[in-house]
Amino acid sequence: MEKNLTIKEIQEWEKSFTKKKHISQKEEEAIKIAIFKLVEETGEVAKAILEENWDEVPAEVSDVIVFACKIANIAEEFHKTDTLTNVMRRKIEYCEKRKYDTKIRKFDKPKSDEFK
Fold this sequence. Notes:
- By secondary structure, the chain is mainly α.
- It is built from 4 helices and 2 strands.
- A hairpin with a 4-residue loop joins strand 1 and strand 2 (106-107).
- Helix 2 packs antiparallel against helix 3.
């Protein structure tokens, strides 16, 4: 049986890969690389979809996930934010409370201090 990867495992792999490949660990340079790559990879997802290259979509989405995790790693390391896994857990709980209005195709925004 195939084991699913966790967000934490992806984040740990990204940190290890960055060190192993000697990619800059300095915040200013690392965040620039991560943002530019996230935008680039998001564009590649869009291109694959628009060109109906569906076999490429999972690989491109994987790249987006890795660079999103890299950005979370930078926030956690340099700015001592809560972990991505904790925030994701709270975000999912918040989303579960939301109601979807099919007529206007929008979710409501339940009152909460978080995720306004």
